[in-house]
Write a structure and sequence with these properties.
α12 packs antiparallel against α13 and α14 runs antiparallel to α15. The chain starts with 6 loop residues before the first strand and ends with a strand. By secondary structure, it is an alpha+beta fold. A hairpin with a 7-residue loop joins β4 and β5. The strands form 3 sheets. It has a 7-stranded mixed sheet with strand order 1-13-2-3-6-4-5, with helices on both faces. A 4-stranded antiparallel sheet has the order 10-11-9-12. It has 16 helices and 13 strands. The structure holds adenosine-5'-triphosphate (ATP) and alpha-D-galactopyranose (GLA).
Length: 514
Amino acid sequence: MTSNVPTVHDITFYSNVEKQETRYASVKHAFSEKFGVSPEFFSRAPGRVNLIGEHIDYCHFSVLPMAIEVDVIAAIAARKDNIITIANTDGKFGTVEIPLPQHLGDEIPINKDSPTWADYFKCGLVVARKYMLESGNGNLCERGSLKGFFALFDGTVPTGGGLSSSAAFCIAATLAVLRVNGVTAISKADLTKITVVCEHYVGLSNGGMDQSASINGEDLKVLLVSFKPELSAVPFKLPATDPETVFLISNSLVTANKTETAPQNYNLRVVEVAIAADIIAQKHGLNVAKDSNIGTTTLRGVFDAYFTQKLGMDAWDGTDIDIGIPRLEKMLNVIEEMYDESERDGISVETATRLTNLDPEMFEKTYFSHFPVKFSKLNIYRRSRHVYSDSLRVLQTLRVARNFSGDSEAFLREVGALMDSSQQLTREMNQASTAQCDEICALARKNGSFGSRVTGAGFGGCIVHLTTVEKLPQLVSALTENYYEKYFPRISAEELSEAIVVSKPAMGACIVQI
Ligand code: ATP
Ligand code: GLA
């Protein structure tokens, strides 16, 4: 993560260069028509698919995503006044003018209750300004005010599809603001660090997986993204199998708006795992840093402390999988012992208050004062099980890759089984799947997928399938006939080609100067 975000002078990094040339030319043309000037550069950030390890990044456990080719690009040209105009090739995102604050410290208001795309843009504006003020990079400090610009966005990442369109969009916005204000070089590490919190400004308490993947992606390499001891993204190649491994992504076409549904879905998970961690700390007398998004302990923090403080073992550095695997297995037993049958189906606020040893007022303030949450019961046992077992599966996947001895079939079966069991726990313990996603997974497994699971936040969106080049045609036609043509009989050929996509690990965010 030490290298800089690249500036490229051609677009040969795409697999279909001709198609992308047409796309960039058409965005350039539309930009000139709309704003009467030519764009000076494009900022660009891709979506991502997560292979395994879901809803564990905000608990500080490592995940295995990769950047993919679909992306958000923005054509940009500076203007002389202090207004940013954002427009979009997608008609559902209307043109918006954003007047820039007169003073550098003035607040940039962002609507958290019902954020529009302009609010997501402002997330990038806010983090870019903060970075420039703190680092002195660029010419903002000398100029004393942000520079206005014209922007035309064009995105191919489906929105609300689990492939991180929002992260790609916020990163493209951030990069645009930085470049216009004279930041010609920024490290991938810094860009990752500043954009990880973008969506917190629209009220989503996300972890750091999406931004890490979008910025650090490399051609043909998946990423091991870790959060402890510090945020890092290490690119590596999965074993070359014969027949060749293929990741197919199929969109359930059930849109999941993460921010709108956050109180009962995403943010509620963040609160439940925070309570879960504090209960473990309390029960086992652990003294743990409060470094979660909401200022509580994390399931990773109490995991580490359980082994060092309670069992007197050496600290785990997070990389040695032969140490991490048995510890996570042990932790799953600890969870089993902590909750009896009556508590496994969810507990009341009163019970959770007692288990965390807080008074009701303090409980409310600690967990419910950050953002709204809606629930009838707190699913502490289920979430703890999900987090520790999906974190275990990430390490088990790494172990299968490390132990690859040339037996492609065994590799695919073992990784596929881990993906399948991740999906089962996503459904039963994290409750983040949907009937449609489950149906696609089941259908795929019968038709050439070695393992299929909902990717990203879930509650709809996309499924990632592990298959081979040989089995791909059977899988695609089964999904087409038995899912898309059945439930979306009027789906066009173009929509279908966007719903079922073969995805190779692709290059991360960049500035395109063509
Ligand atoms: P996930 O994080 O689960 O992968 P997602 O990021 O695709 O899902 P959301 O978190 O719901 O979906 O964010 C979608 C929002 O991001 C859109 O409603 C819009 O505000 C913004 N957005 C994403 N892509 C674009 C784009 N190309 N143009 C404008 N706004 C976009
Ligand atoms: C969303 C969030 C990520 C991560 C995933 C679930 O994509 O933005 O931080 O939590 O959901 O794994």
